[in-house]
Structure formats: C-alpha cells, structure tokens
Amino acid sequence: MARAELAGWGSWRRIATDGAIDSEQRVLVDPAVVERSENGARRLATSYWDALNGFGGRLFNAREHSGGVDVRILRGGPVLLALGPVETEISRTTIAASHTIIGGLLVRRRGGRISFEQLEGEPIELRSRISGFYPRRGPFYGLVQWKLHVAVSRRYFRRLIRGEPA
User: Are 160 and 33 spatial neighbours (Cβ–Cβ below 8 Å)?
Assistant: First the structure.
C-alpha cells in the first residue's frame, strides 16, 4: 500500500544557545480530524502515543497513566521520556493537548512541552510540537531522537487523517 502524501507538510527545528530544542511538524487537513471538545483534544495526544507504539515493530512503548505518560524502549525497558498529565485547550481557533516534560534517560533538564494541536482556519492545520526541551548533551538528539519524532509525526498525521481510532 502506497503512503498518502501529507498536504502542506512542513518540519523545522531550532536549537537555542542554552541547548533547548524547539521543533514543529505540521500538515493541512480538510475536514477537521477531531471535534472541538475535551475528548477531541485528548484524542490528539492519545493518537500520537498510539502511533509511537506501532512504530519500529513496537520498539517503543508509551503508557498513559494518571500521572502522565512514560515512553520506554520495549515494554519493560527504562523510561526514555517521562511526561506530566495531559493538559487541554479548547478555544474558537485551537484544540490542543500537551504534556510537560519531567524526566527520563533522554532528558538533561526538566521542562519544556510536547503538544498536539488542531488549528481552525482556512485551511485547518495539525501540529506536533516540542518546545523548550533539553535533551542529553551529545549527538543523539540530532542523529536519532529528532528524526524519530519527525517519522512518528508523519505516521501520527496519516492515522488521524484516515480516522483511525486512538
């Protein structure tokens, strides 16, 4: 099965002088993929974790729990990324879910966010964003981690567009 092209695909990243990372992936959609509600906002985040869980032959395991999300390598491996509870935003123009980055083996310093958004407008835009993230020092982020986030974001957008359940 051929992969569908993602309309309006865009991706960028910026590294601040203190080592903080900001990155964003985006696509354009029509019609909207989630409803303007708390459930719609939560579906944006849950769908990303589902896309991650199916990536790389189940190499990664994201487990949602009352305190947030733990991303592990394999099912019982160490926590690579620990995230706080989901926070949602619903406004006239934005449906969003985000998590604060609180720790894990890939994190140098607590802080920053991972966010999933549907922005209403002409056209409607989906975004997967990381802001203010402090990865461990060294080449791992640029060589592996960022590329993984971009690949999972592509999978995530395709799944949302196809209407796959979260």
Answer: yes
Q: How far is the C-alpha of 70 from the C-alpha of 29, rounded, in Å? A: 29
For the chain, the structural domain boundaries read: 20-162
- How much is the CA Rg of the chain, to the nearest whole Å? 15
Reply yes or no on domain 20-162 having CATH 3.40.1170.
Answer: no
Q: For 124, phi and psi rounded to 5 degrees?
A: -80, 140
Distance of CA 82 to the CA centre of its chain: 13
Residue 96 and residue 117 in contact, taking contact as beta carbons nearer than 8 Å: yes
pLDDT in tens, 56-105: 777 889 999 989 999 998 878 999 999 999 999 999 999 999 999 999 99
What is the value of pTM for the model shown?
0.91
Q: Which two tokens stand for residue 4?
A: 């569908």
Backbone angles phi, psi at 33, to 5 degrees: -100, -20
Cα–Cα distance, 76 to 66 (Å, whole number)? 19
